[in-house]
Amino acid sequence: MKHFSLIILFIFLITSCSSVKKHNEQRSSCISPEELRKDVDYAYDKIKEMHPKLYWYISKNQLDHKFDSLKQTITQPLTPLEFYFKLQPVIASIKEGHLSLRIPIKKFTKKEIKSLDNKKGMFSRFEYYVTGEHLYIIENKDSIEHIKSGTEILKINDVPVPLYLKKYKNLISSDGYNTTFQPYFLKDIFFNFYSAEFGFRDSAKIETVYHDQIKTYTIKRAEKSKFDFEKDKEQKKRTLEKKVNDYVAFNNSYNRTFKFLSSDSSVAYIKVKSFSRSYSEKFYKETFAKIKNAKVKYLVIDIRNNYGGSLDEINNLYSYLAPAPFTLIKRSQVTSKSSPLKTNYFRKSNALEYTFKSILYPAYIVSQTMNTYKKDSIVYYKMKADRETKPQNDAFHGKVFVLINGGSFSASSILSAKLKNDKLATLVGEETGGANDGTIAGFYSYQKLPYSKISLPIGLALVQPNIDFTNTERGVLPDFTVTESIQDILDKKDRQMEWVMKEIGNEKNGK
Known about the structure:
It is built from 15 helices and 19 strands. The chain is an alpha+beta fold. The protein has 4 domains: 21-104, no CATH class; 119-220, Pdz3 Domain, CATH 2.30.42; 255-331 and 384-508, 2-enoyl-CoA Hydratase, Chain A, domain 1 (Alpha-Beta Complex), CATH 3.90.226.10; 339-381, no CATH class. Helix 1 (2-28) packs across helix 12 and helix 11 runs parallel beside helix 13.
């Protein structure tokens, strides 16, 4: 076995040296129209084969027409990146937020990665806000060029920002006819698209306006100082507190936080930025023990800007809110018994992982097969969250408020829809970015288009909350709509939290 592992490792080392160069050459080369049209057919065939509810928001005739029309427009050779910008809008028209091509990006050598690690980000040192055709800076973390919060970016390298926004918006879809998701996701991913399109440059010229005064700045990818390296080193240390609260070194924050909001500890607050599952059981166990000991009457759960994650984590969280046994989701549908076997088991495995997975592969096949069954001509896949779950001993039985917005997606929407349906919480904020009646995700098959080599992850399972469906084809609608403006953000006014605290105050005062 040791000899076999060394052979695998040697093969990986040899191939990895040339794979970066080969990838980048392929990424910059033009592909013939005939081959690109074959990629379009391949993508659509694989989606039809594995997507369990493809025509949820668009009819078959409409989607057939879109793919056929796309092929007719491909008359000239294109690079993979150019092809991506033509194909992805058609896939986005399916209106499934989890279904999206991976944008073909340049790969870096170890030397290039080390060089980038020695520099600060350029655009990533700002926080942004998108509304309509406007892109604003709402936070300047390093006081770059002393650009003030609230500054609008008008142009990037002489190209008007609305042109970028229009182009990138076409690449993004939420679930169904949701109206709030796009600006939240776009503010986070705008410069991912930009960097993929124009590369990781060391500088950029931006034209801005602040209080009617137009200025032009050149922002640069600055070298890290000794202090920056020490800070990076400190942030990478994994203490128990960091593990339990799921610390994220990239933005120096925690995925989970807990605190009391009142001096008498009658109001508790849980913020979850992502349902990562990492140490989540320990976090909720300790948190709800504190809530019970403090005899909390009101609990605020904040899942704004939470793009989702683990079903097991939200199932566990729900068990601390439920008064009786519950089932979080309905049985998950897949297209066939073989569908769960198409999950690219060996994907992103290094030499040792590949060897270990090879040994476990027969057990994996048996497990996936046993979890798939057919009933009434429908194929289902067993998940932990579709089984009945008992409430926790420390389950909270006071009043629950849940804060949601357009950035609440996927698992966040499943949780919100279930809490609203079961009348266990008051939802405050905006319509969620994910659909009220479920989504297509669960686990993925990562397809690669034959000629452009673009990756196409396809969700394999129909995941729906165990509720009475609204059939609105929209997100989860709040019980009380409270929106925020850019001025609220700049003034650090949390309108949704203010609304909740005012409501709690009124209840306490008997109003």
